[in-house]
Amino acid sequence: MVSLKRGLLSLTTIASLTACSAERGPMQIEPGPEGTVMVVGAETTLSLEEKDFDFKVANSDTPGMSLGTAVSGARSSENNERRLFVPASITKVVTAALVLKHLGSRHRFKTEIVWDWSGAGNAHDLVVYADGDPRARFEEIVKGLKEKGVTRLTGEMHLVSHDDRRDQAAPPEGMDWEDYLNCYGARAQAFNLRRNCAVLNITGVNEAKWSDSGIMMPLTFDMSLGSSRSVSVLPRFDEWASLSGYHIRGTWTATSKTRSSAVPIANTKAWYGNVLLRELSKKGIDVTGVKPVLADEITSARLRGSKSSRQVSLKITSSAMSDILAQMNKPSDNFLADALFRAAAEKGRSSDLREAAAEIVQSGVQEWMNRSGHPEYASEIKLVDGAGLSRANRVSPRAFLALLKEFAKEPNFPALWNSLAIAGVDGTLRGRMKGTAAQGVVRGKTGTLRGAYQLVGYVPRKGSDGKITEYVPFVVLSSANQGNRFTVRDFQNRLVARLAEKINR
Predict the structure, then answer these.
(1) What pTM does this model have?
(2) In whole angstroms, how far apart are CA 123 and each of 242, 269, 284?
(3) For domain 88-105+322-419, is the CATH number 3.40.710.10?
(4) Domain positions in the chain
(5) I need a labelling partner for 461 at 20 to 30 A (CA). Which of 56, 117, 345, 392 fits?
């Protein structure tokens, strides 16, 4: 077992943990980049007496911070203040901050519908403009058209993206195939419905069909009859590395039953259009002969340019951004995070959405780091997606701490604070830190990818009147074997609970 001693730790703001496989006791602490525990802070004296760790105080290279390191036996460890970790879903905190910075807490996604009247109740050449609302809102659209007196559609129905870059569905750098081909990794687009995930039913040798109409994801096959069933659904990509279809291969038996697979959909426009027409028909609007028209970039640009000269007859809006952020952060919703990240990325100038996103992240991070007095920390933050599914993302503990400090100074910080899970109460922290000083007080964001188990957030410091006087940020980052994930989380819970107790004692 790791030796039991008592250490005194000056701590307010950051803790970074990395663990490797257990040899003796619940966690092995080794020197060097694998297996180090460090805590950085400046204001609150925290005494930790843990059976697994012995904390000692050392000086940090960062001004105003002290550093605690773990000791295993007689071997002291190196600190991880500058080490780069995979952030996983704590990336969503930065996504939220970027969205609030560029769009604001009151921003709403909007779907605009324009048409020409061609007689009583006849809407001719209807155009739907979408800007990435994560929900399709078919019910609101149908209701709005009926209230406008529309009883029939004629001509064409054009589907136009507010920004064509939204339709790029290439995976971010460093995203595992397992994540990319699961519904939780589906990419958001300008037109979104059912979280851009659909069911593919494989019914026989070289036979399959989608569970819904209008899905433009071509299928190719390489299947044969065999003595046992073994089927794989593999992605196909176009020249821009975007998902363009699926290839089904393997063996099928004469007695095999339908195999259903839920997979992400890349080109959602036709699917969206067909479902919308179906919903209109159900509610009594005649759509006979009308088909969705997927406008190319030139036509889309022309339609967007002419929109100002035509009446915007119907506008459907989402809930406010502050509400969407809570729906994203509390349960750690990857699809919403991707949609919001893309919304912020539209402020970038590059024609490639990934490059535009990189511009926005870099400029935002640099601005916050400059304001923090540590511009050099900007090189220690690399984020290539908004949900944290990419393993190419990297953050250092001190850089993420600096970001959290700056976020708390932003005018829209209340929206970020309210979006975070409450320890022991809701979201991904519902079952953590119950019965401690952190319960109902601490708000944070978890991050989980295989080998990376992270926790960041804030402990509110309260004055004598019970009002919050300061939001004290903390960061606990880990690089651990999957078998150690519960030990890591237990350490995080104990550390943050003790921190909450000390800050408000």
Answers:
(1) 0.86
(2) 35, 20, 14
(3) yes
(4) 1-80+461-505, 88-105+322-419, 109-318
(5) 56
